Amino acid sequence: MLSETEAPVRGLADLPPVQSDSLLQLIALCGADPRPEKIDVGVGVFRDGEGRTPILNVIKEAEAILQQRQETKSYLGSSGDKRFAELLRPVLLGEHAGDPRIAGLQTPGGCGALRLGFELIASANPDARVLVGAPTWPNHPPIIRSVGLQMVEYPYYDRDSGRIRFDAMRTALEDARAGDVVLLHGCCHNPTGADLSDEQWGEIASICATRGLLPFVDIAYQGFGRGLEEDAAGLQAILSACDEVVIAQSCDKNFSVYRDRVGALFLKTASAEATARAMAHVFQRAREMWSMPPDHGAAAVRIVLDDLELKTRWLGELDTMRGRINSLRQRIAAADPRLGFIGSQFGMFSMLPLSREKVLELRDRHAIYMADSGRFNVVGMSDGQVDRFTAAVVDALQG
Is 290 one of the catalytic residues? Predict the structure, then answer.
């Protein structure tokens, strides 16, 4: 028996239950549904007219080149593929690509970049609050909390009207404390599809600079909205206005390399020397978390970006993906006036003004799977499924 002063030994069996990620639960439910007509607009991947998530032709060619030319699988180091990060600079940073105050490194997808960036912030200022627009991507809050930072929500989107609550957002940021972090979606907002205009980006950039806020820009869908350059305009406005910026970038979507986990973290500080010091901490954190990032996907992307002909063809394939997204948006918007807002939004996601009960009804009656919040993947269905989807949604809106 234990004495009164001895505490019981706790082990792995004493861990409390964990609430499963709702999206993972949704994927499992859809996979288990035997109905052949089921529509999965919950998972966030691009699908073509036949409902497939294809490998881009330029990626297949790059992988073939990699197989022929790669002479070793030895370690690359914590920074990963340095040429990959270098080639991303003009794509992502535009006119800021040559700024010596900006540095970056390869990460395991956008999630790795987010976690690494917040780890750095927590090390520099553990008292910083992270201001997050509501709603946001469901994995943002747990990543922020996992590093011990406090999260504060600010109003971003009204689901009933399908509009950004910009006045409320601006007020919240104007009331923020110096040193607070503002998490911003660079483009193709997930889960709403509602993006800030260029003018609104300018206002937010000015507020961040004036109030001493640290913008953390998550840009995971560049090229899926208005265009590759246009989708980076907000980020570049932030870079023009602010001395300190953190950027989490992902190639998983615009290169369709989801399972290869290809991303990057970029930092800007007020001087090249300060950036070098910050990056030393980034490398240390990366070493502690994953040591070396996976190479294959980043190497394929690097080969594409390093070859003018392949890069030009990638831009064409990206245009095709964006064209399908935008055409489906217009098709869905035309089905009913209450869906018209979808046609003025960008990227893969939008939120339907449906209650959780209506979402579950769509799942039970029509085998349509989407998040309980009403978030759905606009390009998650085949061409042949669109009419059935819109008819079911319109019926739910009327009910």
Answer: no
**pLDDT of 122-152, one tens digit each?**
999 999 999 999 999 999 999 999 999 999 9
336 is catalytic: no
**Catalytic residue from among 62, 113, 176, 220:** 220
CA distances from 70 to 55, 56, 64, 116, 299 (A): 21, 21, 10, 28, 10
372 is catalytic: no
How much is the pLDDT for 3? Answer: 61
The pTM for the full model equals: 0.94
Beta strand 214-219 with 181-185 is parallel
Give the tens place of pLDDT for each residue, 341-361: 999 999 999 999 999 999 999
250-194-336-327 Cα dihedral, nearest 10 degrees: -40
Active site residue 137: yes
Length of the chain: 399
Q: Going from the N-terminus, what domains does the chain have, and what CATH number goes with each?
A: 12-55+323-398 (3.90.1150.10), 58-308 (3.40.640.10)
